[in-house]
Design brief:
- The chain is of the alpha+beta class.
- The protein has 20 helices and 11 strands.
- The radius of gyration is 27 Å and the shape is globular.
- The two termini are 16 Å apart.
Length: 651
């Protein structure tokens, strides 16, 4: 598989005796540090901007663009391969990420924080994507083939740990800091009560507030909210929510920062008028329309009468105990109190109670005695008594997030210093030296990937191995949440969060670890058929679930755990094959290109999966998912893999 090339640093073997550092001192921290910037940019930034008052439209628009550096990173991966060492790139990019995070921490306390923080996040994202290229290349250079196979499951575990820390612990830290530098937090008990009629909602104009003695504090009305478990029509619930939203805006509680002016609703953008609309019409006329007719004729979706309904709603009113200072602004955040595994990001919490209006309020000397309205809605599938607590907290939100970002910046500075000392110095870690110019070598590196032996079969495998998974992952949650009459399982949102946040992630991690250990023991070629089967066969559980529609939550949880274990175990083969195929003088750039095609193979099938499920229904869709695994399974059986790759004898 390895192609000959002219290189002054390609002679030594990876994992040779020249390496003096144990992988235990650098692989965990390397892949933990690889995951943290990604989750900060893609997840934590969304929470931060929401707390700082940015509109949902702007958050979705601008933070989505931050994903671009990871999508296009194969374009500059050859430069990483042909300039300096991978070790240099790893240490330097970690320092740059640290510096960028520190600048973001400064920027969030300024008046133009959104513009400057986005710019700095963008730079940090490019640095992180470059770090990913170098880290994966360094992994391949510093470890033998056997060690690469043994560590592949562990490195994924440390990467997932970074996801948990970034989306869980760091957000919790910011929340704690928010609550510690403002007014004392106020807890509101919310109970779902069965068997009682829905109580009439209080008119906010009837709540009279007078100044109280003592320190400034928040006052909830009522301190305990009881919401009757009864159905409301979607129109009734929507009217209550809209009335509360209008009240909050009219009384100055909602001060959202809108960054960009939007065109008038009736005016289409140039892209919509000249590109997307004509293309959409052409797609409908030439492909989706005729295909939809064929699917509906041969695979009719079961028709069930579905009456739109919504859960009952209750309202918590918040005021201040007395007027704040003339120019003082009190920003209050209102959210459900986290419990247990939610603090580490392993569970989504009990969303049987959903806050649909009133996440953030702004009080001042003019509106302190007017009640801000927070609307809590029950899940319509909730039928038993339940209770949670919501917490209203206030504080200097920019300061809290600034401190959190400084903590992460310090962590990355420590990573940079640690890896500057602890990363090994493999003699084969160096730029590939040829007689070509830098630009010429760039295109030669890029071109050499497409000249590899078996490139056609390899690319087809990379694109199609997850063809079924790419479609399944977009439809699983709607299937679990949809009611039985719609072909789903009728789970509550909290149940879905529980099954994936606990059973699912444990099974996924165990499957990944076991996959790495078994591949290191038996080699990729011997394990490939078993891992491919483990990737595909567990998806039969969704055929079973869609046909039987069981009500037993433990049975459903077991089925999801089986599917996640199979995915974790089988995905190991995919990662190892990309390491195997990328091997060679330009392995760093070539592995980055492989990951780019992997992302493309996940993106395209996911785009139409929801449409197919809507047309044919869940029962037919999951059968289609099983059949769509056939191309990847067939290609996997045709791959030519060195029998010794991954085994200890190969090192």
């Amino acid at each position: 598989m390895t192609q000959p090339a002219t290189s002054s640093a390609a002679a030594p073997t990876p994992g040779s005796a020249s390496r003096t550092r144990s992988p235990w001192v650098w692989v965990p921290t390397l892949y933990f540090s690889q995951g943290i910037p990604y989750v900060i940019v893609m997840t934590m930034s969304v929470v931060m901007y929401k707390r700082l008052g940015i509109s949902n439209t702007d958050i979705a628009l601008y933070t989505s663009w931050l994903y671009l550096p990871w999508v296009i990173k194969p374009l500059w991966s050859p430069f990483v391969d042909i300039t300096r060492t991978k070790r240099f790139w790893v240490v330097t990019m970690q320092f740059l990420v640290s510096f960028g995070l520190a600048l973001v921490a400064f920027s969030v306390q300024g008046s133009n924080f959104f513009k400057w923080s986005l710019f700095l996040f963008w730079i940090m994202a490019f640095a992180s994507a470059t770090h990913d290229i170098a880290a994966d290349g360094f992994y391949m250079l510093s470890l033998s083939k056997h060690e690469q196979a043994w560590w592949v499951g562990l490195r994924s575990t440390f990467y997932r740990t970074a996801m948990i820390v970034g989306s869980g612990l760091l957000v919790v830290l910011a929340g704690v800091l928010e609550s510690k530098n403002g007014l004392p937090p106020v807890q509101v008990a919310v109970k779902a009560v069965p068997g009682v009629p829905a109580a009439p909602l209080i008119d906010p104009t009837q709540i009279q507030v007078t100044p109280q003695e003592g320190e400034l504090r928040m006052v909830p009305h009522p301190a305990t909210l009881e919401v009757a478990i009864t159905d409301r029509s979607a129109e009734e619930a929507g009217a209550v929510i809209e009335r509360a939203r209008k009240w909050n805006r009219e009384h100055g509680f909602f001060q959202e920062i809108v960054v960009a002016d939007r065109p008038a609703a009736e005016k289409q953008s140039w892209w919509a008028e000249h590109i997307s609309t004509p293309l959409g019409k052409a797609w409908q006329a030439a492909i989706s329309g005729p295909l939809e007719s064929v699917l509906k004729r041969h695979f009719p979706k079961p028709v069930a009468a579905k009456v739109p309904k919504a859960g009952n709603v209750g309202i918590v009113y918040l005021t201040l105990s007395k007027p704040p200072a003339t120019h003082q602004t009190v920003v209050v955040t209102f959210d459900r109190q986290k419990r247990g595994l939610e603090y580490v990001g392993l569970a989504k919490g009990d969303k049987g109670f959903r806050l649909v209006e009133g996440e953030r309020f702004v009080f001042n000397a003019e509106n302190w005695n007017q009640p801000a309205m927070a609307v809590i809605q029950l899940d319509p599938k909730l039928r038993q008594a339940a209770a949670v607590h919501f917490v209203a907290s206030s504080g200097n939100i920019p300061l809290a997030w600034s401190i959190t970002l400084f903590v992460v910046a310090a962590l990355f500075l420590a990573f940079s210093c640690w890896h500057g000392v602890m990363l090994p110095r493999p003699p084969n870690d160096g730029p590939v030296v040829t007689n070509r110019s830098l630009v010429g070598e760039f295109f030669a590196t890029l071109g050499s990937f497409f000249k590899k032996p078996g490139i056609g079969l390899a690319l087809a495998f990379i694109l199609l191995y997850r063809f079924d998974e790419a479609q399944l992952v977009k439809v699983i949650s709607p299937f679990l949440l949809d009611g039985v009459e719609a072909g789903g399982l009728g789970l509550t949102t909290s149940q879905v969060g529980l099954v994936y946040g606990t059973f699912g992630i444990l099974a996924l991690t165990f499957g990944g670890l076991l996959g790495g250990f078994t591949a290191a023991r038996h080699g990729l070629k011997k394990m490939l058929p078993i891992m491919v089967c483990s990737m595909y066969l567990p998806k039969l559980v969704f055929v079973f679930l869609s046909q039987v529609q069981p009500e037993n939550f433990l049975l459903i949880s077991a089925a999801i755990a089986v599917e996640q274990f199979g995915y974790g175990f089988g995905f190991t083969a995919f990662m190892l094959y990309m390491l195997y195929f990328a091997d060679g003088p330009h392995k760093t750039a070539h592995y980055a290109i492989c990951t780019g095609f992997m992302a493309l193979g996940m993106m395209l099938p996911g785009m139409w999966s929801g449409w197919v499920a809507d047309v044919v229904g869940y029962k037919h869709f999951f059968v289609w998912v099983i059949f769509s695994a056939v191309p990847g399974f067939t290609l996997a059986m045709l791959l030519k893999v060195d029998p010794q790759f991954g085994r200890k004898s190969a090192g």
